[in-house]
Design a protein that fits this description.
Blueprint lengths: L6 E6 L6 H10 L1 E2 L4 E2 L10 H7 L1 H6 L3 E8 L6 H13 L4 E3 L2 E6 L2 E6 L4 H14 L8 H6 L7 H10 L12 E2 L6 H16 L7 E3 L1 E7 L7 E7 L7 E2 L3
Antiparallel strand pairs: 1-4, 1-10, 2-3, 5-9, 6-7, 7-8, 10-11, 11-12
Length: about 240
C-alpha cells in the first residue's frame, strides 16, 4: 500500500449544529463537515495572518477528539468494508454524556479537555482502536520517525508498534486541539484568549456522545473531511456527508 494512499481516522466530532462544533471549527478556520474555510476569529492580540499560521496543524485534521488515529488501509482492506465494520462496531457502544470541557495547555499547544475524568471516552477509544486495527496498514519508517520514538516511553513505543499510535489504552488522553505548537512568547496569551473565547461561546456545557465519526484525508497534504457518522448503540441510518 502506497504511502500516498488516503488515510482514515475515527474521531469524536460534535454535531455540526452544536455550539461546540461551531466554536472549534471557527477557531481553527475550517469546517470539516463542509470541507470549507471559515473566517479567522477575532482574538485579542492576534491578527488574521498570525492566527492562521498558528492553527495550520489542527486545520489539516479538522476539529475533533481522536479515538483511532489516522491510518492507511491494509493491502487486503477496502474503504467500504471499513465503513461497514465501523458501523457495526458503533452499534455495540453505548451513548454517554461528555463532561463540560475547558481550555488547557498540553505542552506547546492549546486544546479542550474534560474538566473531570470520563472513563467512557477511554473505553470507546480502546474499543475502536482494537476493533478496527485489522484494517490498518503498518506504519512506514517515515511515519514512525515523525512520532519521535526516541522520546516515547517503552510502553508508548510498544503501542506505536502494535497500534500505529503511542497514546492508546492507559496512555489515552482525550483532547480537542485548537492550535499547533505555540512559541513560548505567545503561548500564555493564546491560552488566555482561547479560554475567554470558549467561556463566552456557550459551548462549555455537557454534550451527548452519540456517534462515531469517520474522517478521510484523500491524499497527503490535503485536509481531513468528515465523511460519515455512525450512531452508537442503535440501527439508525448512517449519515453520509455531502461536500
Amino acid at each position: 500500500m502506497s504511502a500516498a494512499a488516503p488515510r482514515y481516522a475515527l474521531y469524536y466530532a460534535p454535531d455540526a449544529e452544536t455550539a461546540l462544533w461551531r466554536f472549534g471549527s471557527s477557531i481553527i478556520g475550517y469546517d470539516a463537515a463542509r470541507a470549507a474555510d471559515l473566517p479567522v476569529p477575532d482574538l485579542p492580540g492576534f491578527d488574521a495572518e498570525s492566527w492562521h499560521a498558528l492553527t495550520a496543524e489542527p486545520r489539516r485534521y479538522g476539529f475533533h477528539g481522536t479515538l483511532k488515529a489516522p491510518f492507511r488501509l491494509a493491502a487486503d482492506a477496502g474503504a467500504a468494508a471499513l465503513e461497514t465494520a465501523a458501523a457495526d462496531l458503533a452499534k455495540t457502544c453505548h451513548p454517554f454524556s461528555l463532561p463540560p470541557l475547558e481550555a488547557a495547555l498540553i505542552g506547546p499547544f492549546v486544546a479542550l479537555v474534560p474538566k473531570v475524568p470520563c472513563p467512557q471516552l477511554g473505553d470507546l477509544a480502546e474499543t475502536v482502536t482494537l476493533g478496527l486495527d485489522p484494517f490498518r496498514a503498518a506504519l512506514t519508517p517515515a511515519e514512525i520517525a515523525r512520532r519521535r520514538p526516541e522520546r516515547l516511553s517503552a510502553r508508548q513505543a510498544g503501542y506505536l508498534a502494535a497500534h500505529g499510535y503511542p497514546y492508546v489504552r492507559e496512555e489515552f488522553r482525550f483532547h480537542m486541539t485548537l492550535t499547533g505548537p505555540l512559541p513560548e512568547g505567545v503561548r500564555d496569551h493564546a491560552f488566555n484568549a482561547l479560554r475567554d473565547a470558549f467561556a463566552g461561546s456557550g459551548a462549555a456545557t455537557p454534550i451527548a456522545v452519540t456517534e462515531l465519526c469517520l474522517f478521510v484525508q484523500p491524499a497527503p497534504g490535503e485536509r481531513f473531511r468528515l465523511k460519515r457518522r455512525f450512531p452508537l448503540g442503535g440501527d439508525a441510518p448512517r449519515r453520509a456527508l455531502k461536500y
